Amino acid sequence: MPKIKLSQRTIEIVREICASFENNEGELINILHEAQHKLGYLPAEVQELIANELNMSVAKVYGVVTFYSFFNMIPQGEFPISVCMGTACYVRGAEQILHEVKRQLNIEVGQSTPDGKFSLNCLRCVGACGLAPVVMVGEKVYGRVAPQQVRKIIAEYQEGCVKPEKHVM
Question: Taking the CA atoms of the chain, what radius of gyration do you get in angstroms?
Answer without folding.
Answer: 17
